Amino acid sequence: MTGRDRPVARWAGRGLRGALSGLAAVGLAFTNLPLLVVSVVALALSPVPFLGLALVPWTMTLVRMRADLERRRASRTGVLVTRPYHPPPARALPGSWQYFRWTVTDPATWRDLAWLVPGALVGCGLGLIAVLLPLYGIYGLTLAPLWIWLGTGWYGYGAIWSVAVPGEAMLCVPQGGLLLGVGLAIAPWLRRVDAHFVHLFLAPTKNAELRLRVNQLTMTRADAVDAQAAELRRIERDLHDGVQARLVSLSMIIGLADELLDRNPAGTRKLLLEARESSSAALVELRHLVRGIHPPVLAERGLAGAVRALAIGLPVEISVEVDLPGRPDLPVESAAYFAVAETLTNLVRHSRARHGSVVLRHAAGLLTIVVTDDGRGGADPAAGSGLRGIERRLAAFDGTLELSSPPSGPTVITMELPCALSSPKTMPSSATG
User: Fold this and answer.
1) What are the angstrom distances between the C-alpha of 338 and each of 32, 293, 400?
2) Sheet holding 400-404, edge to edge
3) Least confident of 71-80, 142-151, 156-165, 271-280
4) Which of 83, 178, 309, 328 stands 20 to 30 A from 73 (CA)?
5) Residue 156 has pLDDT above 60, yes or no
6) Measured CA angle at 113 (ends 18, 205), to 5 deg
7) Which residue(s) pair with 370 in the sheet?
């Protein structure tokens, strides 16, 4: 049986991970106060020549490492917290005035410092609840009945009711089970509450988001130019090494056949058969090349039909739901198609899923694609799974990709592309592949 066939086991697993994450939050909370003390001391010593220039950036680097850790922990719960820091100045070395100025003039530095105390209090409080409530339930299920059975003379459990005599010992079991269930149920929710609190302090402000957006557009423009150049080189290479070579061979075969036409009709017939096979192979290679540039199914059926065709050809059951009242522009449609194709390829290769789904919808000028699967989860863009390539493809059109893939799943990939739809809808609104 898979995790999809054991919903209770998956629910308990999520609750246990939430409780363990709460325990980690309690431990990490105790690092915030020392970081704050060290930072205050470093700032107090900043007027000291040389010492302040080196000490302040070093301590703020530690604070940023702690804040980055909390951002990653929040992102694992599905609450995306982007790093808001200014890029370091070019050729600025640690210990220099430029590096010191870059550190202390970044508003995100002071937001990190402002988060240390309230972040520690909220993280520790919510983490204690997430840990102690399930532990108290386990205590009621195990230790209290065990002590009563051993005749220790101590029968109290409290909370909902008390046990005063051995005959009431089993009352601890339903009480402990209830507390354990409630604790496992709310532990993931408590982690998300903590993650939203982290987002309140450590996410970029509106001005920082605008600045990051400008930087992202600058980088994506360069990536788009590089990707276009690489694609042109790939097409040239495929034409030169494949189709062009076959056409040259075809021309030589036809030339030999012309020379043998009068002298050797049988040899000429053989050469013509070979030329026909070579031309067929060249046509096949041309079709493959065109498919890699703009798949014919995409031109014929549109994005909805092309995605359904993709889903039908996969060994995993993929359901497709479409709500598109028209078609995007061709470049956007092609980018969306190849992004879905790469995502479904990753699903088949890495997720070990039994079922997946693709949802396509358009609203408020935004094409949204949501790909989910019930696999093992743990997808990581840094692990070479192709997600970085999908991000670059979408970023060229001002699109974004968000990933939620906790261990044991499910994996949810949300892709958004700003676009307008042109032609009226010609396909039904949903289908299953």
Assistant:
1) 44, 10, 14
2) 400-404, 411-418, 366-373, 355-363, 317-323, 430-432
3) 156-165
4) 178
5) no
6) 80
7) 359, 414
Count Cβ atoms below 10 Å from residue 415 Cβ, excluding itself: 24
What is the per-residue pLDDT across 255-277, written as a single tens digit (0 to 9) for each?
Answer: 777 777 777 777 777 777 777 77
Give me 417's structure tokens: 């592309």
- Which phi-psi region, left, alpha or beta, contains residue 16 (left: φ > 0; alpha: ψ -120 to 50)? alpha
Q: Are strands 400-404 and 355-363 parallel, antiparallel or unpaired?
A: unpaired
Q: Mention every residue, 6+ apart, whose C-beta is less than 8 A from residue 121.
A: 29
Q: Is there a cis peptide before residue 410, judged by omega within 30 degrees of 0?
A: yes
- Residue whose tokens read 């020549």: 49
- Per the listing, tokens 């980088």 go with 219
Bridge partner residues of 415 (DSSP):
369, 401
Per-residue pLDDT tens over the stretch 224-250? 555 566 556 656 665 665 666 667 677
Output the DSSP codes for 232-267: HHHHHHHIIIIIHHHHHHHHHHHHHHHHHTTT-HHH
> What is the number of other CB atoms lying within 10 angstroms of the CB of residue 359?
16
The answer to whether the CB of 387 falls within 8 A of the CB of 403 is: yes
∠ at Cα 115 (114, 117), nearest 5°? 90
B/e letters for 296-326, b = 16+ CB within 10 Å, e = fewer, are: ebbeebbbbbbbbbbbeeeebebebebebee
User: How many CB atoms are closer than 10 A to CB 68?
Assistant: 15
d(CA 126, CA 22): 7
156 close to 175: Cβ distance less than 8 angstroms: no
Q: Which of 9-23, 234-248, 418-432 shows the highest mean pLDDT?
A: 9-23
Residue 31 binned pLDDT confidence (cut-offs 50, 70, 90):
very high
How far is CA 102 from its chain centroid? 30
Q: What region does 92 belong to: left with phi over 0, alpha with psi -120 to 50, or beta?
A: beta
Structure tokens at 280: 């067929």
User: Could you tell me the CA-to-CA distances from 160 to 121, 184, 304 in Å, in that order?
Assistant: 28, 18, 56
Bridge-partner residues for 258, per DSSP? none
Q: Note whether 339 and 369 are within 8 A (CB).
A: yes
Q: Quick check: 158 pLDDT over 70?
A: no
CB 141 within 8 A of CB 176: yes
H or E stretch covering 357: strand 355-363
Look at 80-89, 94-103, 159-168, 229-238 and tell me which has the smallest mean pLDDT: 159-168
